[in-house]
From TrEMBL:
<dbReference type="Pfam" id="PF04811">
    <property type="entry name" value="Sec23_trunk"/>
</dbReference>
<feature type="domain" description="Sec23/Sec24 beta-sandwich">
    <location>
        <begin position="451"/>
        <end position="535"/>
    </location>
</feature>
<dbReference type="Pfam" id="PF08033">
    <property type="entry name" value="Sec23_BS"/>
</dbReference>
<dbReference type="InterPro" id="IPR007123">
    <property type="entry name" value="Gelsolin-like_dom"/>
</dbReference>
<dbReference type="GO" id="GO:0030127">
    <property type="term" value="C:COPII vesicle coat"/>
</dbReference>
<protein>
    <submittedName>
        <fullName>SEC24 homolog B, COPII coat complex component</fullName>
    </submittedName>
</protein>
<dbReference type="GO" id="GO:0070971">
    <property type="term" value="C:endoplasmic reticulum exit site"/>
</dbReference>
<dbReference type="GO" id="GO:0090110">
    <property type="term" value="P:COPII-coated vesicle cargo loading"/>
</dbReference>
<dbReference type="Pfam" id="PF00626">
    <property type="entry name" value="Gelsolin"/>
</dbReference>
<dbReference type="Pfam" id="PF04815">
    <property type="entry name" value="Sec23_helical"/>
</dbReference>
<dbReference type="InterPro" id="IPR036175">
    <property type="entry name" value="Sec23/24_helical_dom_sf"/>
</dbReference>
<dbReference type="InterPro" id="IPR006900">
    <property type="entry name" value="Sec23/24_helical_dom"/>
</dbReference>
<dbReference type="InterPro" id="IPR006896">
    <property type="entry name" value="Sec23/24_trunk_dom"/>
</dbReference>
<feature type="domain" description="Gelsolin-like">
    <location>
        <begin position="673"/>
        <end position="746"/>
    </location>
</feature>
<dbReference type="InterPro" id="IPR041742">
    <property type="entry name" value="Sec24-like_trunk_dom"/>
</dbReference>
<dbReference type="InterPro" id="IPR036465">
    <property type="entry name" value="vWFA_dom_sf"/>
</dbReference>
<keyword id="KW-0968">Cytoplasmic vesicle</keyword>
Amino acid sequence: LCLANKNIECSFCLLFLFVEILERVWEISFLFVMLFCFCLDLLFQQYPGVSQLSSSLGGLSLQSSPQPESLRPVNLTQERNILPTAPVWAPVPNLNLDLKKLNCSPDSFRCTLTNIPQTQALLNKAKLPLGLLLHPFRDLTVKTVGKPHIDTDGKGMYMLISLCYLVPEEFMYNPLTRSYGEPHKRPEVQNSTVEFIASSDYMLRPPQPAVYLFVLDVSHNAVEAGYLTILCQSLLENLDKLPGDSRTRIGFVTFDSTIHFYNLQEGLSQPQMLIVSDIDDVFLPTPDSLLVNLYESKELIRDLLNALPNMFTNTRETHSALGPALQAAFKLMSPTGGRVSVFQTQLPSLGAGLLQSREDPNQRSSTKVVQHLGPATDFYKKLALDCSGQQTAVDLFLLSSQYSDLASLACMSKYSAGCIYYYPSFHCIHNPSQAEKLQKDLKRYLTRKIGFEAVMRIRCTKGLSMHTFHGNFFVRSTDLLSLANINPDAGFAVQLSIEESLTDTSLVCFQTALLYTSSKGERRIRVHTLCLPVVSSLADVYAGVDVQAAICLLANMAVDRSVSSSLSDARDALVNAVVDSLSAYGSTISNFQHSALIAPNSLKLFPLYVLALLKQKAFRTGTSTRLDDRVYAMCQIKSQPLVHLMKMIHPNLYRIDRLTDEGAIHVNDRVVPQPPLQKLSAEKLTREGAFLMDCGSVFYIWIGKGCENNFIEDVLGCPNFASIPQKMTHLPELDTLSSERTRSFITWLRDSRPLSPVLHVVKDESPAKTEFFQHLIEDRTEAAFSYYEFLLHIQQQICK
C-alpha cells in the first residue's frame, strides 16, 4: 500500500521493519527475504535516488561476493601460456575513489604489497617480501607551491604527518591559504606529488651553483679507443644545454701517468695546460682558475674541446693514475660541490687506488666468484664518502676492452650517489654500436635535469619500520639518505618490517620527501605520498601482491647476498622465495593437491620472473660471463627504477612482420600499432617471421631465414634475406606502409624511456644471434632449466 501510494517515508519504515524481523527469525525467513528483495527492487525502480541503501544493507545479500580475479587459483603446470598479451600494469590498491586520488603514480612510488598485513606474523605466514620501490626524481610536471611548515624534528627535512594520527600545531598551518585549522587542505595532502620552494630554514649555506668537472683518461689505451672525439663533440653540441644558470662553472682534468690541469681563466688567448707529475702528493697548481664560469670562458672551453682529441694522439704512455686524479678532483670540488664525470679505459696502474687483475677466465661460469664481486681496496669507497661529505657525486664511464675491476671502481659512484655507465669492448671504429650508445647516453647525461646537495627522507605510519636501503647513496641516519646529486634516472628500494600491530588502523601511509638544490639555485622539496589499506586475512595479502615490485626488491636483496655470501646462496634464496610463497599459499587452499602447482593469479608470473632473474647476467651460471659484465648487471639492479629494471629482467617480444592498425593507438597524430606480447621461447619464433625484442637498453630485430622478401625490402631496404648486412643498426626511412608502422612502433617504445636503446638487426643463423637467444628465458640451456622444468623443480621442493 505504501509503495502504491508512493509514500517514501512509510516505505523506508517498512523496509527497516523487514530487516528487524529477518535478524530475529533468520532460520525461517527465506520467503520474507524474497519478499524483501522484491520490495527493494520495486522501490529502486520508483525512487532511483535511494540507491544508497544498498551499502548499508549489503550484508543481507543472498549472493556471496565474487572472488577477486587476483585470487583466482592458477594451475601453473597446466596453464602453459600465462604471459599476458599486453604489458603488466601495477595493481590498483583497494581504496575508495578519494583516497586513490591521493596516491602518486606507481612509476614514482609503489609497494610490493598493495594490502598491508596487520602483523609481522601474518607477513611471515605469507612468505612475501615487503618493501618500497622509488623513482623520486623522475621526469614529470609537478605542482609547485610555496614554503612548507617548519620541520619539528630538528633534522632539517620534511616531516611526514599521517592522517591516521593527531598532527602537531605547526602542521595546522596551510601555506597556500595562509590560515590555520585545516590540515586536510594542505598541498601534500591534496596532491599525491607536490613540490615546495623551500625557505632558508632548509639551507646550511646559500644554494650552490651547478659545477661540472670532467676527469679524462688520455693514456694510449684511451686514445686508441677513440672515446675523446665522441665526448668532446657531444660537449660542444650540448654546452649551452648544460643545466645551470649564470653561475655555472666547468673544469677539465686529464691523466695518464701524470695529471694535467687546464687554466681556462677569462683573458687568456688559449687554454693553458699545467702538469703535476708528483702523483704521491697531489696539489692544485692554480686553484682559482681551474673551475671557470661557463659563460665567461666559453670560447676557451670550446678551443680546449676542439683540441683535446688530437693532443695525445702520439702518446706512448700506457699507465693510468686514476686514484691521484680523483684526489685532485676532490680538492678542486670541495669548496662548492657538484658533479665529477670520470672516463676510464683500463685498470688503474699507478699511485693510490692501483688495482691488479683478479679475473680468472676459467671461473667465468662458476658460482665461486664471491671474493671478486666486492672491492679489492677501500680506497674508492673512502674517497666517495669524502666526496659525499662535500656534496660531490662521482659518475663513472668505463670504456674498456679488457678487465678493469668494476667491482672496485664502482664504489666511487655507489657511495657518492653517482651513476655508472659501462661499454665493454669499446672502440669508436671497430664497435660502432657501442660508439653510438655512448653518443646517445652522453646527450641524455649532459642535458637531463639534475639536483645538487640533496637528502631524501622516507617516513611511514607508526608500527612500520625501514631496515635496508638499496641504491647509490650514503645513509646519514635511519631514514635519511644523503644524495650529493640526484638525477631523473635513479631508482631506490627499501625493505620494510612490521614492528607493531596495525589493528588500530585501516590505512597506512608512506611519504618520501626529496630536498635538493635545482640547477637554477632554488632549494626545493619534492613530496610523494602513498596510502594503502591494512588487511587481516592471508587471502587479502595474496590478493594485493605487486609481483613486479616484489621481483625487483628480491633482485636487490639477491645482489647483496651475492656480495656478502656467495652467488650460489643468492640463487638458492631466489628459488626458495618461490617455493616458500607458493607453499604458504597452498596451505590456504582446501583440498590442496600436491600433484598440482597452484598459485593465485596475482603470483602466477612469480616463478617465470625468478627464472628470468636466475638467467640474467648478474646471477647466471654455466654460461661464460665476464666478471665486469656481471658486476655491471648488479650495479644496474641496485640503481635502476622498476620500469627499466623489469625490461632488463624479462624483455618484451613482439612479432612485427604482420603489424596492422587493429587495436592501434594514436600518439601525436601518429598511428602506433600494438602487437601482442609473445612468450620468450624459440617455439614462438618462426623462420617466416620477424620479431622485435625490447631489452630496455637494447632492441633486437630477429629476421627469420624464410621471412617474406616484401617485408625485408619494405622495412630494411634490402632485396632479400641474403643481402641484409651483418651489422645493421638503423632502419631506413622508407615510403612504405610496413616501414611506417614498424618505425612508428619502435619510436613509441623509445620515447617511453630516458636513454635511447641501440638497435641490432640479427639474421637467423648468424653468429650475432647468440645474444638474442640468451634472452629466451623459457627455453632450456645446458646449465639452466626451461620454464616447465623449473615449475617441476619448484613443485618437487614444495612436496619435500
